[in-house]
Specification:
Layout lengths: L3 H13 L5 H9 L20 E4 L2 E3 L2 H12 L6 E5 L5 H6 L5 E6 L2 H13 L5 E5 L12 E6 L8 H5 L1 E11 L5 E9 L2 E10 L8
Parallel strand pairs: 3-4, 3-6, 4-5, 6-7
Antiparallel strand pairs: 1-2, 7-8, 8-9
Helix pairs in contact: 1-2
């Protein structure tokens, strides 16, 4: 269930559903998603579906990971990226070889500890971790070329917008459960432009 053929089938499904970036598709093929889920769910790791990872969290559907990564990194070569919601690290692992540096924030320290170990096992070292409130971002290393948020906020977090560099892009799900919209937000000098990437379903971005 973790064979090259199984992974190729997932990649073809993503292509059929509109993913065009060969770099992103290659990462989806390479990253061992079965290592990011519980052993009992490993046989379902290469299905295009979200799966539970414990602590009330989920590993995102591969299509969503690919779509967010593709949208974020278009025209962002050599980017520094702020990730809000490290989770199990699957999104991080897909993105890491495609950017210069990832600064990732996770509010659940026990989840972050496991993820840090998992990424080291995969020889991913351009990621810096911080436990904390995602609504606050990580001001120390701002501004960021890209910001990716893997939990849904009721509205755009003002502090994250402030940490986005001019010309930078943020991908974030916004809205209440059942009515979430995946937004691409681009900073244009003194204003922000928003584009909808479609309906999604994420766990909430909790404050505090």
């Amino acid at each position: 269930m973790t064979s090259a053929r199984t992974r190729d089938r997932l990649v073809q499904r993503l292509k059929d559903h509109g993913i065009r970036s060969e770099a992103v598709l290659n990462q989806i093929r390479k990253v061992p998603r079965h290592l990011f889920v519980d052993e009992a769910l490993a046989s379902r790791a290469y299905e295009d579906t979200a799966l539970p990872i414990g602590l009330g969290q989920t590993i995102s559907q591969p299509w969503v990971v690919a779509r967010m990564t593709e949208a974020l990194l278009e025209d962002l070569a050599g980017a520094t990226v702020l990730e809000i919601g490290t989770g199990c690290g699957y999104q991080t692992a897909v993105m890491a070889p495609l950017v210069k540096k990832i600064y990732t924030v996770e509010r659940l320290p026990e989840l972050m500890k496991k993820t840090r170990q998992r990424l080291r096992q995969l020889d991913i070292y351009n990621v810096q971790f911080r436990p904390g409130d995602g609504w606050e971002g990580w001001p120390k290393y701002a501004p960021y070329d890209g910001i990716i948020v893997t939990a849904a906020a009721p509205e755009l977090p003002e502090k994250l917008l402030q940490q986005l560099a001019p010309g930078g892009r943020m991908v974030i799900p916004v809205g209440p459960p059942g009515f979430q919209d995946l937004l691409l937000v681009a900073r244009r000098n003194d204003h922000f432009e928003e584009v909808s990437l479609g309906a999604v379903s994420f766990v909430p971005l909790i404050q505090g």
